[in-house]
Structures are given as structure tokens and as C-alpha cells.
């Protein structure tokens, strides 16, 4: 042992850890030691921050404000219905106003931007059955891009104008169908617009038994005629580039669906460029929901 160790051993005293007045050490380090370690971490974190900023800057250079640089979405878009519920069910009693009033209110709100007066003010009266292509000129952006009118009146009996209850009061409900938006998608060729068909969904009821409600679904009516998504509403250029875009809709009206029974319905898109159901998503291009009309008269 050296003299210092001998002294500590003789006296039994321990060196103070928090502050040592003899060696001027704070938490076991001198001022110069603390300065060097703080300088190291300062330089280290400045370097990390600089690397992060540089990485973000390079990444942002690859992005386009109006169009995704890379698209990894399904080739066939999904479909959705309105009115919408979490369980994809529409259950009501025509004699009970409160049971279907929420559906009609939801449709009123959803269709408000499709009022003819709003569409005439914001969008163009386009030539049907042709793509509304608006290309950029090199580096010059053709923005904001125009959009075609989708007038609420084209939904006819399901517009909420002729019948404010959308058929729910009479047991002939309307369901609106829309395609999810996909930038740049061209859903048809040779002037053939995609169209929607609906029918009874085939579902499993036992280990090897399947069933469908074909007898209960009854007659259907589609609006616009033939349930078409006209080509003039495509391609879609994105929310920022096409600020007034009105997504086309198809309405299906159930004219004589069976009451007091669950009717499982499936609607799908039909197109000569889109395929429904694939390996990645068997529900691509189709939507299923349950409709039950309860009648207290039966």
C-alpha cells in the first residue's frame, strides 16, 4: 500500500463520492474529466442529429407532393357501402321510424356534396364513356386538375330527392356502393365502363354445407342504369391535385326482399381490366353485407 492507502486504512475513513474537497472530484470525476466526456457526447449527438436530418432531406427529395413515388396497393380496389356500420349490417323495421332514421340521416350527409347545385359550381360537365385525362407538361404541373360532375339526381329513386326516406319506410331500401380511390387507375378499356352486380352471397353453414339466400334477395334496381362507374370519372389524380373530385357512386335498391330473415348480399365490380378476389385479398373488388327487414305485420 502507498501512504494514502495506509492513512485511509489506519483511520478507517472513506473517500467521499459526491464531492471530494481534497481531490476536487465530483461524482468520482474531476472538472476536466467531466468536460471531456460532455464534449464527446455533445459531438456524438450532433453527429447523430445531422445524419438524421440528412437522411430525412434525401428521402423528402424522392417524394412527390401530388403523386406517391411508390404504390403498393392492390390492383383491384376495395368497395364500401353507405350507410355503413361496423358489422356491415343493415337491420331495421319499416314501422319503427327510429330504427331506420339513422340510416337516412347518414345518407343525407354523405350525399350533400353531390347536390346538383354544388356539382355545377365546382365540376365540369364531361363527355361520358371517355377517360378524363389531364397530363402534365413536362415539369409544368397541370394543377389543380378538374373533375367531372356526379349529380345526385343520377341516383334517381335512391337520390333522396324523390323519396326522402330512400325506400326504408316502404321496405325497399337503397344501399350506395363506392370504389376505393386508387391514383391513376384505369378500370376499363375499349370504352367499356365497369359496372356493379349484386346477388346472394354463398356462405358456409356446416362442415361441408354451403348456402345462399337467392330466393330471399328478390328483384334489384341499379342507379345509374346498369350500375356503371362511368369512365369519365377516371383516372383519379389524388386529393391534393384534384381537390373537387366527386367519387362516382352506384345505388342498388331492393324492391321485394324477403322480410324477417337475414339476407346475405354480395356486390362486386365487373370490368375488362380488373379482377375480383386474388391471392393477396379475396375481397378485392367486392363487398358483402347483411340486410334484415323486420315486419311486425307478419
UniProtKB/TrEMBL annotation:
Residues passing through the membrane, by range: 36-63
Keywords carried by this UniProt record: Cell membrane, Disulfide bond, Glycoprotein, Ion transport, Membrane, Potassium, Potassium transport, Signal-anchor, Sodium, Sodium transport, Sodium/potassium transport, Transmembrane, Transmembrane helix, Transport
Gene3D superfamilies registered for this protein in UniProt: 1.20.5.170, Na, k-atpase alpha subunit
Glycoprotein found in the keyword field: yes
One GO location term (cellular component): sodium:potassium-exchanging ATPase complex
Primary location class: membrane
Any one of the GO BP annotations: sodium ion export across plasma membrane
Superkingdom, natural source: Eukaryota
Database matches in InterPro entries: Na/K_ATPase_sub_beta, Na/K_ATPase_sub_beta_sf
Cellular compartment(s): Cell membrane; Membrane
Membrane topology term: Single-pass type II membrane protein
GO molecular function: ATPase activator activity
Cited PANTHER family: SODIUM/POTASSIUM-DEPENDENT ATPASE BETA SUBUNIT, SODIUM_POTASSIUM-TRANSPORTING ATPASE SUBUNIT BETA-2
Family, per entry: Belongs to the X(+)/potassium ATPases subunit beta family.
Function: This is the non-catalytic component of the active enzyme, which catalyzes the hydrolysis of ATP coupled with the exchange of Na(+) and K(+) ions across the plasma membrane.
NCBIfam families the record matches: Na_K_ATPase_bet
Protein name: Sodium/potassium-transporting ATPase subunit beta
Amino acid at each position: 500500500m502507498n501512504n494514502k492507502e495506509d492513512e485511509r486504512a489506519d483511520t478507517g475513513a472513506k473517500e467521499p463520492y459526491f464531492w471530494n474537497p481534497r481531490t476536487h472530484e465530483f461524482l468520482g470525476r474531476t472538472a476536466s474529466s467531466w468536460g471531456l466526456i460532455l464534449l464527446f457526447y455533445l459531438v456524438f449527438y450532433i453527429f447523430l442529429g445531422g445524419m438524421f436530418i440528412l437522411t430525412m432531406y434525401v428521402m423528402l427529395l424522392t417524394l412527390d407532393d401530388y403523386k406517391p413515388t411508390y404504390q403498393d396497393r392492390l390492383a383491384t380496389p376495395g368497395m364500401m357501402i353507405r350507410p355503413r356500420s361496423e358489422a356491415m349490417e343493415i337491420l331495421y323495421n319499416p314501422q319503427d321510424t327510429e330504427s331506420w332514421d339513422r340510416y337516412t340521416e347518414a345518407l343525407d350527409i354523405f350525399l350533400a356534396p353531390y347536390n346538383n347545385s354544388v356539382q355545377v359550381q365546382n365540376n365540369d360537365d364531361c363527355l361520358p364513356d371517355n377517360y378524363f385525362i389531364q397530363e402534365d407538361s413536362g415539369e409544368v404541373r397541370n394543377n389543380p386538375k378538374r373533375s367531372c360532375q356526379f349529380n345526385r339526381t343520377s341516383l334517381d329513386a335512391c337520390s333522396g330527392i324523390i323519396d326522402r326516406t330512400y325506400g326504408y319506410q316502404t321496405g325497399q331500401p337503397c344501399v350506395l356502393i363506392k370504389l376505393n380511390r386508387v391514383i391513376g387507375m384505369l378500370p376499363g378499356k375499349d370504352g367499356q365502363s365497369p359496372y356493379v352486380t349484386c346477388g346472394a352471397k354463398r356462405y358456409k353453414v356446416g362442415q361441408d354445407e354451403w348456402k345462399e339466400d337467392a330466393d330471399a334477395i328478390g328483384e334489384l334496381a341499379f342507379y345509374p342504369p346498369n350500375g356503371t362507374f362511368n369512365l369519365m370519372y377516371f383516372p383519379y389524380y389524388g386529393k391534393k391535385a384534384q381537390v373537387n373530385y366527386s367519387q362516382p357512386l352506384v345505388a342498388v335498391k331492393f324492391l321485394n326482399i324477403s322480410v324477417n330473415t337475414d339476407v346475405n348480399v354480395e356486390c362486386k365490380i365487373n370490368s375488362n381490366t380488373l379482377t375480383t378476389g386474388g391471392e393477396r385479398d379475396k375481397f378485392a373488388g367486392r363487398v358483402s353485407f347483411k340486410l334484415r327487414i323486420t315486419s311486425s305485420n307478419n
